[in-house]
Amino acid sequence: MIITLKRKATKQEEKKVVDKIKKLGYIPHISKGVDITIIGMVGEFAEKYKETFESMEEVDHISEIEKPYKLASREFKTENTVIKLPYGIEIGGTKVPVIAGPCAIESKSVLLETAKIVKAAGGTILRGGAFKPRSSPYSFQGLGERGLKYMKEVGEKLQMPTISEAMSVEEVPLVSKYCDIVQIGARNVQNYDLLKACGKQKKPVLLKRGMATTIKEWLLSAEYILAQGNYNVMLCERGIRTFETATRFTLDLNAIPVVKKLTHLPVVLDPSHGIGIREHVPSMAKACLAVGADAIAIEIHPRPEEALSDGAQSLLPAQYNKLMEELKVLAKALGREI
Amino acid sequence: MIITLKRKATKQEEKKVVDKIKKLGYIPHISKGVDITIIGMVGEFAEKYKETFESMEEVDHISEIEKPYKLASREFKTENTVIKLPYGIEIGGTKVPVIAGPCAIESKSVLLETAKIVKAAGGTILRGGAFKPRSSPYSFQGLGERGLKYMKEVGEKLQMPTISEAMSVEEVPLVSKYCDIVQIGARNVQNYDLLKACGKQKKPVLLKRGMATTIKEWLLSAEYILAQGNYNVMLCERGIRTFETATRFTLDLNAIPVVKKLTHLPVVLDPSHGIGIREHVPSMAKACLAVGADAIAIEIHPRPEEALSDGAQSLLPAQYNKLMEELKVLAKALGREI
Amino acid sequence: MIITLKRKATKQEEKKVVDKIKKLGYIPHISKGVDITIIGMVGEFAEKYKETFESMEEVDHISEIEKPYKLASREFKTENTVIKLPYGIEIGGTKVPVIAGPCAIESKSVLLETAKIVKAAGGTILRGGAFKPRSSPYSFQGLGERGLKYMKEVGEKLQMPTISEAMSVEEVPLVSKYCDIVQIGARNVQNYDLLKACGKQKKPVLLKRGMATTIKEWLLSAEYILAQGNYNVMLCERGIRTFETATRFTLDLNAIPVVKKLTHLPVVLDPSHGIGIREHVPSMAKACLAVGADAIAIEIHPRPEEALSDGAQSLLPAQYNKLMEELKVLAKALGREI
Amino acid sequence: MIITLKRKATKQEEKKVVDKIKKLGYIPHISKGVDITIIGMVGEFAEKYKETFESMEEVDHISEIEKPYKLASREFKTENTVIKLPYGIEIGGTKVPVIAGPCAIESKSVLLETAKIVKAAGGTILRGGAFKPRSSPYSFQGLGERGLKYMKEVGEKLQMPTISEAMSVEEVPLVSKYCDIVQIGARNVQNYDLLKACGKQKKPVLLKRGMATTIKEWLLSAEYILAQGNYNVMLCERGIRTFETATRFTLDLNAIPVVKKLTHLPVVLDPSHGIGIREHVPSMAKACLAVGADAIAIEIHPRPEEALSDGAQSLLPAQYNKLMEELKVLAKALGREI
Fold first, then answer.
1. By CA distance, what is B35's nearest residue in C?
2. What was the ipTM of the complex prediction?
3. Are strands B233-237 and C295-299 parallel, antiparallel or unpaired?
């Protein structure tokens, strides 16, 4: 990192910083301008001491040079991580699987009905929430373990890998037992105990970006999972919060090429939550594919007006079928495949 | 709530919405313009059905009228909630206690040294983290239960109530056992299982606002705790995330009068995390008092450059002492007392 | 619009609002709940009186129902506006023209060199700034009228329509004289005198969205131009400002389907300014095409390290050529054409 | 500035950058880590070449060290600038003048009536808009020159300096002729021709921060005025745009201590526009005083429900009178005076 001293720092002040660097086992590189002195402190784990130097009265500010995450970085692993799921499905390779299903699991029959629609048009992974993070304590909170059992049953029946969210440490083994991917929601992106619990089990993890999480923080949260030994992590962009309220969130497609350069982990995109308006989901889904998504997550519901959660953004079956046809054509033009 | 139908909705489309409202047991109030029809659906819990109507093809959008939180609202309880703590300290009354201490508990001796400084200048509540939410898995993560024991010991010795953060459901009984206030951090503001766990124990809870949490969501998170039977909840504004990077966060003082009008719960302000720059904390602390804070939380450290966390924003003892004197004078001018 | 009265408003308070509505020539539609009364005031130009009612002590808040812009709306004109430019180029039809060129016009020879590269690979409109809005008064401010003359000369030589920015009322006739499209930059999106000046001349106008402009405000700014009689307006999304600093701005693709539903005006996308990082521009450009752009604006420079402005986001000629090939294939898959 | 080379840059790549630095007349300071090389380029005007180096393929990124503004900085002028106005009023000294009046000038009689209320309670500067920036072309646009004449007349009658906004280059001499301070609104903070025009006339200028303007950009905009020779510039914070919609904007008090450290220019705060809700303006006004405002701007109207603009945030006379009494007591406690 680069330490910029306070303007017109004295020899003595400079020495205090230099001594600290040496004491920590690094070699200081000093560069002097007329009024400003900057000191380079480069090397393994130097960033760890950022706060130490920021706290010194002699220091004006610190510029970071090295990345604070290691296992998630391209420096640690150059090639793309490909996550292998049951029934031969992969995320991170040439194929771009579509993950679809209802926001919440409501009943076995509706789940099966929806899953059949998903599969018939080419969707390969089944999504559905059993534990629902709802901003109001008075909203429907999900079916819990019963919902997970339905997921397992329907997934096996239709030969589709399944994904569902765990909201707490206790729910991780449950989701891990019944489903093929454990999802961590946007609100829990910095719930570190939950991240560690996901790192200690074996199923792949989908880590959603929080609505105010920087790319750097998001990768550090992935690092929490990786550091526990579970390397099957995929990132999921689902919209950040900005000043614009015409859409539910602002799906940040800009993050995709940036993240894919920094990390080897696959990136999933969720246009349904991102824009939050049913009729605009297809346009965004196509943009997601074009920008380089490794998988696309879409909410559908056979009768959205009866949905217990997020009905306003769930595609109708006919919209979903049309979109899948368009995505297939588009994927080919991009050298990929749905 | 107000349901606005799609432009030029037909009689039949209107009827579909009206029938739905009647079926749910409400009376529709219809108002027609040239192209636009709006339907009022007012009454107890009407907002619960917001998503149902949003999902209907016939509906353009919904405007909320009633508040989705009940127990947290001024409608439920008109007078301010005053939270009683040991040693006669109260939050929510005329006095504005200063909550001060280090970001993280590092050792018993440093904690005691800091607490003495806090108390000598007039601070009455001791803060310090034993479980630290750190964005990097490689940063110092706190002393855990050992730190909590130090808090209890030092608090009792100096006759100061204590506050510390719980990051997970398992940590709640620990913090609740050793400390007088359980803190929920910004990253966990929508960790609903954690909120419920706080609601089930008896100690007062300080609920920080998340960096992208709207005022409405924040009050709904408080509602999660209240709904479990713990009514001793205080809100804490600690900075939201905006485009401006010259400060660590943007402490949102605007939220204070708005929140105090909506809820009877006391509001604490944390200028240290909010602005994140040591030398600017005093100016902000004074603004916090002037805008109507019920308590002010400040980080101090006897030797910030040795702090294991957040040293850059911790006040030096001399700065803290000076600030306390200024706050006392200011409080009097505002008809309050430190 | 919908007027929600203060909770527990008295008969008298209600009457005061109702009388005001009647006095303005509208018919009030009253809907009463237990504690809350809402009053609909629907009709031509009702929104004009929003502030009047907001100012009344009896009123809690107003919900808007009708759109405040008229000429820009789909209600005013259902079919897409197609803007006709010289040499048979159109914006808003099936073809998606690529607008490319340097950020700033630096010399005639570099402009010609760049334009030839643009055209050879299929770009059809030439962009380049003669008046440059620079945040620092000490940065290069553009060649002025001399630059515009070069644009005209090069555009005519290569048979390409041209576009350049006007930053002030005085510059509008100059840009209008030498170029085929007058560009209004993000910083001037609410410079109303400038908008009116654009509305009074005949050349098509490209109106960039400001970095904190809502979709509604953006369309109202377009309305300022339309209201002067110039209907050839195109909107250009170029990135909004959010908390994320890993990219220069956050190109808001979500806005595109929303805007295209609200307005008949064509929408141009500028991935170069939006993401601001050369190597990531191609991914974003493909997403722009997929989401429904009517034209794509790209910065290129034969030798970016010599560019006097925005070199870091300008594509190298080889990158541009490759991107154009990819866009052509993608356009076909989307039923469009570059 | 600090130039960080691409990871694992070769000797040759390093040389290319070093040669460029030397060619520009600076001395490179090289600091090498295992994989990363950083090069310091410190000295007068080095930042001017930021884009040149950012454009080089060999460079990963640039960290700025020196400030890009000069005349606005504390390095250029250490002591606070005090702006002298007619009738002995000053901005930037110990006294904190209150600038009050209606949002828009509506008639001479209402202006005079309002001004008398302002003055009676201790307000010393009269504000009022003759040219109104309205987001809709169909809203009231102000009385123009006629309004300015009223301002002059009323100001002289009551012996109060006056302030009014200029929205375009043509309006600058008009406002400058009739009023004592020329105001530049938030929407024009980067309207560079307008800034230059303000710099060329002699009256003091109040420069509002834009709703998405960083502190650095704001000071650069001030620099545009200063660079033309007019050193009587004051900055005005009036609220930034964030995700929170419960308040009209988010008044950024955090910016005040930061800005006051960076610049010698006085800082004015506008709580009325910032929070935009009448009943919450007094709380925010007190916070503005406490955080260190050099002047406070407040909107008042004798009958807000008849106001032609911004009635919802204008104080009623009784609210204003009460606030002024509170501010006087508070100012004394802060060692200042209203």
1. C43
2. 0.91
3. unpaired
